[in-house]
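From the shared-data thread, chain only:
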Amino acid sequence: MSEWWTYRLEDFLLFSPRVYWRMFELANAAFWPLHLLTLGAGLAIVLLVLRRPPRHGLWIALVLAALFAFVGWSFLSSRYAVINWAIAYVAPAFGLQALLLAFGGAARGGLAFEQRDIAARLGLLIMAAGLVVYPLLPPLFRRPWTSAEVFGIAPDPTAITTLGVLLAASGGPVPLLFAIPLLWLLLSGLTLHAMGDPQAWPPLLAAGTTVAALALRRIAR
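Structure, as tokens:
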């Protein structure tokens, strides 16, 4: 029997890359045309961040909360956990993030979007990456369009877009809201890396950029 330290990350995978990406194809087929609604919600979030109408922070938080709850149930619990038993223990974290967003948005002070520093500008770029760039990745990695990952349907672009929103936000609850999206992107990136998939880099890059932006903001203060 081999010692535990002789195992590699890929030795713990219970599925192949083909099965993994097929999962996205099936999810997209099952939920289409809901993608149009979730992308519309993402665009609405960007407009709310930029224009800041009354109670914009509450609406942004509630929309993100609803999408985290939906992705946690419809994708992680209902699909991903079928091929990866460990996800059954991860999916509740998306429910927790939904609660944190909802309560954080409703709390006194809530979320405000008055940041105008470099980190906030990076946040806007990260939002654009999650909403626009991520669904366009399949051809770059020689996969069919049907495997595209879309905000509000798949976990990675949902987490990435949320991190961009949070970088543009301020308020008491904001620091608590980074952990779960960051940890998810780390897990996702490592999983893809273990499969030898070059798309491991986008989630890791998004997480790394977010951490770097937070560090720059802290140094600037």
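The CA atoms of residues 123 and 165 lie 6 Å apart.
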